[in-house]
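Input chain follows. Return structure tokens only.
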Amino acid sequence: MQAAIYHQFGKAKEVIEVREVEKPEPQEGQIRVKLFCAGVNPSDIKMRSGTSRPLTGNWQIPSSDGAGIVDAIGPGVDRFKIGQRVWVFNAAFMRPQGTSSEYTVIESWMASSLPDHLSYAQGACLGIPVMTAHRCLFSDGPIDGKTVMISGGAGVVAHYAIQLAKWGGARVITTVSSDIKAQHAKAAGADCIINYRTENVVERVLSWTEQVGVDRVLEVDFGANLTTNAQILKPGGVNVMYAVVDQPALPLPVPMMMAKNIILRFTLIYTITPSERAQILSDIDAWLNTRKCQFAIAAKFPLKDVVQAHELIESGNKIGHVILEID
């Protein structure tokens, strides 16, 4: 089979090659998926560049997300049948068999049924971004009637967080850095959109909430916005972090946070418990069945152009997903 693969960390054009590799066979508890699309995420870039974790062996097929059909089933698996449409997640976390390939073998819990009304490209969007958005929103209980602040509303995770927050009954405030990004966030359903380059975020949030503040903050740049978030959160509010753009020393505004009994929550979707994962997948199915979900795909590349896909994400010059199309 054809697969993108690298054997060491480095720049995409220097370490990734697309070549023929042996088709894997499923073992106990595993399934093999014939992939038609793979999602390329920022976490894939961090992993390939060597900034997140070591190689699990002497090679890596990148990408954790994808969509295709079940092609083979190992012993002990009864959840799936041959030919079933599925979306895949977690494929490249602490294991070499990612989704930037014609086939991947995964543990059976790393797949979920793909509804017929979704394309394979849309299915490849559902892993890390949508699951992360859900976990950040609902990890501290229902959000019906609450006010949620979602940082960076044009980001991929934020795009789904806005939609899932509205599905869950919340009011949504979000921040953006341009008019184009504001339009993207508005289309997703945001109620209040703040341009953080031209407006005072704290003043706008407090004004819009009549000085009450927000119940939860979903943060893509944890270190940069600690003080802002402490100012806009209600007493007992939750500041949820799912990414750090830079990693300098993070001076916590402890007195302000302590005075408000603010909760700091750190989220990594790969390491949640099986019961937490089951709830997330159940809710995503319910959300998908509304048929109101929006998928923003910035670019599609053939597998042979996987390097360009990685470079586009690194450039930051896109709004939406980057998808690999696999013949």
